[in-house]
Amino acid sequence: MLTFTLKRLGLAVLVALTVSFISFILLFLAGDPAAALAGETASGEDIEAISRLYGFDRPMLVQYGDWLFSALRGDFGESYYFRLPVASLIFERLGVTMTLGVCGISFALLTAVPLGVAAAIRPNSLIDRVALFLSVAGQAMPSFWFGLILIVLFAITLGWLPPSGASSPMHFIMPTIVLGYYAMPAIMRLTRAGMLDVLSSDYIRTARAKGAPEGRVLFRHALRNAIIPVVSLAAVQMGFMLGGSIVVESIFALHGAGYLAWESIARNDLPTVQALILVFSMFYIVFTFLADVLNAWLDPRMRSS
Amino acid sequence: MKTSWLKSGIASVALVAATGAAWAEKANDTLRVAFTKELENVDSFFNSSREGVVLQRAIWDGLIYRDPVTNEYKGNLATSWEWIDDTTLELKLREGVTFHNGAPFSADDVVYTVNFVSKEENGVKTQRNVNWMESAEKVDDYTVRIHLKEKFPAAIEFLSGPVSMYPAEYYAEVGPSGMGLEPVGTGPYKVVSVVPGQHFVLEKNENYHDSPKGQPEISNVDIRTIPDVNTQMAELFSGSLDLIWQVPADQAEKLATMDQFTVMNESTMRVGYLNMDAAGRSGDTPVTDLRVRRAINHAINREELVNALLKGKSRVVSTPCFPSQFGCVEEAAKSYEYDPEKAKALLAEAGYPDGFTIDFYAYRDREYAEAIMSYLNAVGIDTDFKFLQYSALREQNMKGEVPLAFLTWGSFSINDASAMVSQFFKHGSLDDARDDQVLEYLNTADSSTDPDTRIENYAKAIERITDQAFWAPMFSYNTNYVFTNDVEYTPTADEVLRFTTMSWN
Amino acid sequence: MVDTSTTDSLLREITGPTPGQMLRKRVFGHQGLLFGGIVLAILLFIAIFAPLLAPHDPYAQSLMTRMQPPVFLGGDWEHPLGTDHLGRDYLSRLIYGARVSLMIGAVAALISGVIGTAMGVAAGYFGGRVDMVVTFLINVRLAMPVVLVALAVVAILGGSLQVVIVVLGLLLWDRFAVVMRASTLQVRGREYVAAARAIGASTPRVILSEIMPNIANNLIVVVTLEMAHAILLEAALSFLGLGVQPPTPSWGLMVSEGKNMMLFEPWMVLIPGAVLFLLVLAINLMGDGLRDVTAPENRS
Predict the structure, then answer these.
(1) pTM (two decimals)
(2) Which of the two ends of chain C, N or C, has the fewest CB atoms closer than 10 A to its terminal CB?
(3) C156 CB near a chain B CB, below 8 Å?
């Protein structure tokens, strides 16, 4: 177990380093930011001086190393736009994004798992069809469009929910539904398939034959086994979701990290964009690492593969 | 099914709007306003956006004040002023004024502020606003002299506009970024909290001096950044906003039909124009050819843009400045009528019978940009559209990488042509024309104290600029202000929200 | 190299021949395949014959007749679905928009399919170091936030149809690689592969004539999934203003443009969103149907 964890940790660190390198290069290619920093009356020499001052004239690898070491200390530089430390800008806005992510994944799990189980218990029933319909529709639903429709329906037509912002729990209801619905189909399908798989297996049949109560069979034996891959998928989806919250945050005017990312891209605020790519990647890497370790602990077969 | 859905959507808008007004925050004496753009820094010397101007006028005061209706100059932090010579202005300061943090206002604050902002290395964002000042000198506690670099007749106008007075001790300690997070001024509103770019809370300054701005009436102002007009309207309907502005004409027309809202239209000094890289800084693009630039001028139907898209108090503009500005002589400008055939002929003459493809940049009003693009496409100019935020486009423009762009300029509401023509045609990094003749005219005009000489030279510059078609000036903007019936406000023609002139009905 | 359970779960989601599929086939499979196929065929027809079907030039601007309502909301038949904010015919733009969506979906899926399949098959066939490298690359790719990276790259390079297609193509290969790697691993050990090797067939030959035909069914399923994925992503990028640029008619862009008048003219948002939903739904249903029909245990 320890060996597995260490190996998996090594992989996570390597992946993180590679991602950081890629995101650095990507934005390095965007060009020399010295002109922007120099201001509107700067001459060619001024720009060169600034370039030297900030070290933009050094070799790329040196700049990368520098950036990485600062990043490890939590220093992502200064935002070109706000002239404030990137780390504090992101930290300030991460709360909204994290809240949204946790609510979103919870919503997805709380709807997808029961639906998946119900669909597996009674295949071909009405509930199976409804579940299937919801999952097929969810996969095809453009989230920005879904969000806009919810705003018209619940904020304008019915007046039940506030249309934008993040100042109360009510404000998170619509964004949660939109973001959660994005992850729901995959989780539901996997739960359903896993349950069907387990339910037809020998040991469930044995348990039933021994006369164990049906509820106990379903939840103590079947779901426990079927849920293992769902945990991994939920971790993956959570990582995807935080990255995907850009769309949702922009529609509901939530000032979170995703919204900051979108604005920063349009503003050419490279230090902020670089840091955000890294932060979102780190979430994915940490979640999947934890899920893998948890899985290995639950299911010893995983460790050997 | 779909039809009823659609119809219910429309009907419901009116329904909710009817109930929404009841929730307005009049009871709490809090006016809730939306900003569209994330403001980079509240420190007014370190941003270049309209939102920044609005906050600047609320938080700080200038030495002088220009009445937005009568255009008369009145003393604000200064009580009187006098030219000692062509480049020295002496001002008597108002006594008994205190900053929001309790520090008394005196000559030291003026000296510190002027000396700080006028130094180029301190990086004030719009240098033109401050770089005409050399330094300031204290004569006694309530008398200062401002020394100019050279003659600058628009000095009074600038002192009543973008140049605000900051508390010396505090500013020296916290600097621009500290000032942006916890602003301190003498103005009618104090800052309670700032979440950078997102949320600004102001509260009435009970000790506001006897300023020509008037005393604030509304106790609290709560400003949130909501980037999308559509979302702003949804908030207005649901009763969680009281006032929105910069509402596009289409939506304003619809809102005007609803009884719960007041829609007011005012003209602004903002001029929309196409900037063309005549000097070829971005490479040897077709717009370096005069015939192509003239063709572009002829290709655009300005009347139609104004009548169908901008509406309201907008008008066609043929000058590289706003016509009400001093020195913005309309008769001097060569105007180009809409004539797509002529445009095509000019393009053919320039060697582009089948047109060409060019990068076309814009940063706001996507819809207008698209309409302009469509006119260009119609005469054979294909466009690669690049829509950036202002800061990013400005940066590219400074690097000289923008062949053709739809830009706008609001002149910081300064009623003098120098705030626009001289901002862009004096070989700065945003100047894509780099014309020596224009530079010469502008240098003469900017530094003369004789009004006739100024007008004559601005006219020459305008004639040269429009004849050479360095720009394609198109139209002036208007702004729609929409507020609930609880709010009483008369907007002014300078695109500045003034909280001091707002009250509850 | 550790074969992580996260990539494994992605894989199970797609390939795992579970009894559930047998059931789904009965419940939904063929109906779905039929429905998806018909809708997709119609949209494909519309896209190909757009110039013949569109009543107007989708780029022709007429500022004096802006935002006319569709026929069913009181408009006239000159513009059956009304006009947009620049007075362009909505139906014509919708028809040309089908071209944009399908082209982006198809080409992006082709690019990512080639990259992903090459990586996956190589990893599965050669194993060892190759497998280690490929698995690592898949993990790196999965860790990068797709929307954010795509937005950033498009912003740097400038939005255009070509750029969006290439960026999506270069980003969406992960699922191809995961699935093709696992499928190849399954097939590699089979007798016919060993037999081909024994008679001295070259490696490319074994891969092309023995491995590929036997993993093609999984490939087709991933192609449909990724096509749908690419179409949705393009729409989202365009909606955010950093995808396909105007005046190109893209459904995502149309939603974004219509959004400004959403509270007053909801049809401007509902119509393009609905056709986008329909297209993606059709592709997904076809993919599901194909998976059910071609799943190995169903062939006997």
Answers:
(1) 0.87
(2) C
(3) no
